[in-house]
Amino acid sequence: MQSKRESADRTLDCPKCWVAMDKEELEVLGPNVVIDVCPKCGGIWLDHGELKKLLKDRKLSDYLTEHIGTQSKSQLVCPRCGWLMDIETAEDVDVDVCLNCGGVWLDYGELEKLREISQVGFKGDKFAKDIERWEEMTQKGRQSALSGLFRRLSRR
Ligand SMILES: [Zn+2]
Ligand SMILES: [Zn+2]
Fold it and tell me: Which of 17, 31, 53, 116 is 20 to 30 A from 95 in CA distance terms?
């Protein structure tokens, strides 16, 4: 088992292009954040907690990385721990979040989009979280009690 420090320094492969990603140090308030950037597709890997530091928006980053359930809708495999990832959506931005380590994959340009969303003032989308919860429950075979919710969803 590697120590946390060592594993954070390890070079990661882009989960989309499978090429080694470059380390890039970003200045933020407090200790700088070192992110991993793919030289090919421009995607960014953020370890757990780094999104919060970069956005300085607890609400938005928590929304994307907390309570993400157990379902994997993403095609990607976590470059950090090799676990399954899920897709979380804020406004029109889809990010991939690791179900195990809470790291976040951002495609090229998505960090800027998240910043814009944050500047406008992200309030959270309770509705989307309800859909997710509903999907979790249907997995457990509880459709009937939630059919009303389903009708509302399908009218969307
Ligand atoms: Zn890439
Ligand atoms: Zn992971």
Answer: 31
Question: Residue 135, SS3?
Answer: helix
This prediction has a pTM of 0.77
Q: Return residues with CB closer than 5 A to ligand 1 (ion).
A: 14, 16-17, 38, 40-41, 43
Task: Quote the ligand 1 centre to 47 CA distance (angstroms).
Answer: 16
> What is the count of structural domains for the chain?
2
Instruction: Identify whether residues 78 and 116 lie together within a single domain.
Output: yes
Rounded CA gap, 13 and 104, in Å?
Answer: 14
For residue 66, give its domain range. 4-123
Q: How far is the CA of 14 from the centre of ligand 2 (A)?
A: 13
Distance of CA 155 to the CA centre of its chain: 27
Per-residue pLDDT of the chain (156 residues; tens, 9 = 90+): 444 555 567 899 999 999 999 999 988 878 899 999 999 999 999 999 999 999 999 999 999 998 777 888 899 999 999 999 999 999 889 999 999 999 999 999 999 999 999 998 887 767 677 777 777 777 766 555 556 666 666 665
